[in-house]
Amino acid sequence: MKTPFTPLRSLLLGAAALLAGLSTAQACTSLLVKTSDDDYVYGRTMEFGFELESKVVVVPRGLNFTGTGAKKGQDGLKWTGKYGFTGMNAANQPLVCDGLNEKGLAAGILYFPGYAEYTKPADADPAKSIAPWEFLTWCLSSFATVDEVKAAINEVQVIGVKFPAFGFVAPFHYTLHDANGKSIVIEPIGGTLKVYDNPYGVLTNSPTFDWHLTNLRNYTKLSDENAPPLKINGNEINSFGEGSGWLGLPGDPTPPSRFIRAMAFSMSPVPVSNGPESVRLVEHIMNNFDLPRGIIRDSKSDVADYTQWTVIADIANRVYYVKTYNNQQLQAIDLNSFDLDAKSPIVAAIADELKAPALTFSK
């Protein structure tokens, strides 16, 4: 008999304290970059105004899961994980808000305030019910490709349940990418899960994904090539320097502006081979979305979003990298090196490293 997995609804009670009141937590950015080998690397930042106390978790295949039911004390969807996965958790719990599975499916939860409309618990099928924070674990443990996720999307109903101790329904939407380079966005709209094909591999936060696609039309003049000189009445006006093709690229930290920047930065670099070279490329790209403490503030409270961690998934090689606010060195979690038939998840903390190591000089 398989080792039962603790019901997921009980795992995030501690995280609810961190999520409650995070109306300003809107700064996550995710993207996908193609390598010269026709493989893909996924990157995302995680911004919150409260400490998530995230750790890295590795979850083996074959564990039994039980989702949150529509009524108190009621079980929801039951499933057995087909695939092992790794990722970042919240509040020290063995489930993920971002991760990569053994088949190369990479996925993340991003904040979606003002637009998330989950299935009402009273209208849900208890056997299909799952909480918003459980959906990503269902995807990563169950599917190898985004097409499989799309085909199975009607097997679940993400219900608008509050975190029991705090009465807070967290607004989420989801980004998913597979080893074939296909990407989708899933958003709870009008009580159902709406699936969008995502040909650009980019996602930020509110508004809805289709709004962001429409907003792209405002930036059709942007280019990775320098702008040609402007000629007026026989006079030639040249730009001041390099980068004139990107003149007008929005630089503020709002979700619409970050979506446009993520598009620009992910589509423009010269492709490099998969592995460490492409991971470093994506790291440089993600650095453009790194928010130090104090850049974003809520005037009505002490909440201040900042980039708590950044992750990069080398999808082809099944290696997941993470760096944190206090430890900017990438650390690797190679799924190939773990026993994915183990009986229980394992969790590892990421040590703070505020002091840079000394450079060693040769004599």
Descriptive tags:
363 residues; alpha+beta; 8-stranded antiparallel β-sheet; 5-stranded antiparallel β-sheet; 6 helices; disordered N terminus
SSE class: alpha+beta
What average pLDDT do the residues reach? 90
User: What shape does the CA trace take?
Assistant: globular
Let me know the largest β-sheet. Answer: 8 strands, antiparallel
Strand content: 25-35%
Query: Which residues sit in consecutive blocks of at least 5 with pLDDT less than 50?
Result: 1-24
The rounded distance between the terminal residues' Cα atoms is 61 Å
**Total count of helical runs of at least 4 residues:** 6
Approximate helicity band:
10-25%
* Overall strand count: 19
Summarize the helix and strand pattern as letters: HEEEEEEEEEHHEEEEHEEHHEEEE
Lateral strand order in the biggest sheet? 13-12-11-8-7-6-3-19
Rounded to the nearest angstrom, the radius of gyration is: 21 Å
General description of the model:
The chain is 15% helix and 26% strand. It has 6 helices and 19 strands. By secondary structure, the chain is α+β, with helices and mostly antiparallel strands. An 8-stranded antiparallel sheet has the order 13-12-11-8-7-6-3-19, covered by helices on one side. The chain has helices spanning 13-19, 135-142, 146-152, 209-215, 255-267, 276-287, and strands at residues 30-34, 40-48, 56-59, 64-68, 75-80, 85-88, 98-101, 106-111, 129-130, 157-158, 172-177, 183-189, 192-197, 230-232, 235-237, 306-314, 319-324, 331-334, 346-348. It starts with 12 loop residues before the first helix and ends in a 15-residue tail after the last strand.
